[in-house]
TrEMBL record:
Its cofactor is Mg(2+). It comes from Actinoplanes oblitus. It catalyses: alpha,alpha-trehalose 6-phosphate + H2O = alpha,alpha-trehalose + phosphate. GO terms for molecular function: trehalose-phosphatase activity. Its EC number is 3.1.3.12. This is Trehalose 6-phosphate phosphatase. Removes the phosphate from trehalose 6-phosphate to produce free trehalose. Pathway: Glycan biosynthesis; trehalose biosynthesis.
Length: 268
């Protein structure tokens, strides 16, 4: 398991687990989904969590204050992957959706984009020949070029032109560009809001959108010296060093995340 210390935040895994055990009931664990709990697959609809992950998350939820998945996927997709989990909270579409008492609750400002996004997805299907994969997510459209990286510029240009014309926002990811509603919402905002009463929090991420969540931990530490935040990157060679260099530790893969949590649970 590769672990790279972040020089500006000299926290080791041992230190972080000790803090967590000491403040267990006021600790939250946040996880991104793709690339963190689930290995990257060519077909986004085929993604599944690492086999050990659901049970490990449930065990963790029994030990700490809160466990949550904060993903760019819709909540319904996450529910399909974690059907048996009862104690893990789900935030979808960067926090535009949250699962609350069994219902998907959507930020009201995003609702007006449901129909335009359906139209946009149909337009993208017509405009971008396969193997570009158009992923329609109800309130956003992701254009994947993993199967044809040589067409990245074409896909990016189409997305940017379309976003400008329709007044939409753009989010880049791993071999993907996504068109989103121009609603002020990101993973960092989810974390900031969810941390109100927390004394300790961990965030596990692998992509550019996760850096905002790391930043939210740092921002909380800056105003609350009693708060301890631990940012964990899951390594990949697609986002380069940017995510790892913003984190306290880097783990090698989603399987390494499961192993890291399994070991951590022995400390309680
Ligand atoms: O916030 P996340 O849960 O990490 O979601 C980020 C994006 O994940 C998915 O795309 C990525 O994973 C796919 C499956 O491994 C892979 O094929 C693709 O290249 C990756 O970009 C998802 O399909 C996107 O909608 C999410 O934005």
């Amino acid at each position: 398991m590769a672990e790279t210390p972040r020089p500006t935040h000299p926290a080791t895994a041992d230190h972080a687990w000790a803090r967590t055990v000491e403040h267990a009931s006021r600790t939250t664990f946040f996880f991104d989904f793709d690339g963190v709990l689930s290995p990257v697959t060519k077909d986004p609809s085929a993604s599944q969590p690492v086999a050990e992950v659901p049970a490990v998350l449930e065990r963790l939820a029994a030990r700490v204050g809160r466990v949550a998945i904060v993903s760019a996927r819709p909540v319904d997709f996450l529910r399909s992957r974690f059907a048996g989990l009862e104690h893990v909270d789900l935030f979808g579409l960067y926090g535009l959706e949250v699962l609350h008492e069994g219902e998907v609750v959507t930020k009201p400002a995003a609702l007006e984009f449901e129909r335009p996004m359906a139209e946009l997805a149909a337009e993208a299907q017509d405009a971008l020949a396969k193997p570009v994969f158009v992923e329609y997510k109800r309130l956003s459209v992701a254009l994947h070029y993993r199967e044809c990286p040589e067409r990245a510029a074409e896909v990016e240009q189409w997305a940017h032109e379309r976003a400008e014309r329709a007044g939409l926002a753009i989010q880049r990811g791993r071999m993907v560009v996504e068109l989103k509603p121009p609603v002020d919402q990101d993973k960092g905002m989810v974390i900031t809001e969810a941390l109100r009463d927390a004394g300790c929090a961990w965030y596990f991420g692998d992509d550019m959108s996760d850096i905002k969540a790391f930043d939210a931990l740092r921002a909380r530490e800056a105003v609350d010296p009693g708060f301890f935040g631990m940012a964990i990157a899951v390594a990949n060679d697609e986002t380069g060093a940017e995510v790892s260099s913003a984190a306290d530790l880097t783990l090698a893969s989603p399987a390494a995340v499961a192993a890291f949590l399994t070991e951590g649970l022995t400390r309680f």
